[in-house]
Amino acid sequence: MANDGSDDDEQAPYPVGYRKPPPEHRFKPGETGNPRGRPKKSRNLNTLLEAELDRPVFIKEHGRHLRIAKREAIVKRLVTDAINGDHRTLALLLKAGRVTPQPEPIDFDIGSDADLEAYLQRALAARRKEALDEPVEADAEEAPPDVDVSE
Fold it and tell me: Alpha-carbon distance 83 to 79, whole Å?
């Protein structure tokens, strides 16, 4: 006979087996299976640097004590050094200004002049409708009286 961990003298009140642990190994009421919780995610260099640059530092400026972020204090120091004639700092600031991403210019590709004219007529008709609170139909063939479409 196979030994399943139970004695013949002792009769278990329920079968012990797969997904049925013995009572002494079950979670007690109010207890969790993961008491310490999920481990915190390890932080990489960028997150550590961001956290440190966001921490406050106290500085004295114009006789006043200020509490500012470390990144702001660094920028203030760089600008002050550049103004005082430090050429390396000035070059660094100018380079950083060029590296800062500028917004891309928006390219409005409306298409042909006929498409543009039709769009403008619809827009003007919608404006008139809003202003007069009346439905105004835009005629695709005729231009609005205040728009010169001659070439």
Answer: 6
Residue 82 carries which side chain, given as an amino acid letter?
A: A
- What count of Cα atoms within 13 Å lies in the side-chain half-sphere of residue 20? 7
For the chain, domain boundaries: 46-99, 113-146
Instruction: List, for the chain, all residue ranges whose pLDDT scores fall below the cut of 70.
Output: 1-13, 99-102, 107-110, 134-151
Q: Please give the Cα distance from 75 to 89 (Å, whole number).
A: 11
- pTM value surpassing 0.70: no
Amino acid (one-letter) located at 13: P
Report which of 46, 37, 71 is spatially closest to residue 56, judged by C-alpha positions. Answer: 71
What tokens does 101 get?
A: 């991403």
Burial class (CB in 10 A: 0-12, 13-18, 19+), 66: middle
Torsion angles phi and psi, residue 98, rounded to 5: -75, -30
Q: Which amino acid is at 16?
A: V
- Which pLDDT score is estimated for 1? 46
3-state SS record for 10-65: CCCCCCCECCECCHHHCCCCCCCCCCCCCCCCCCCHHHHHHHHHHCEEEEEECCEE
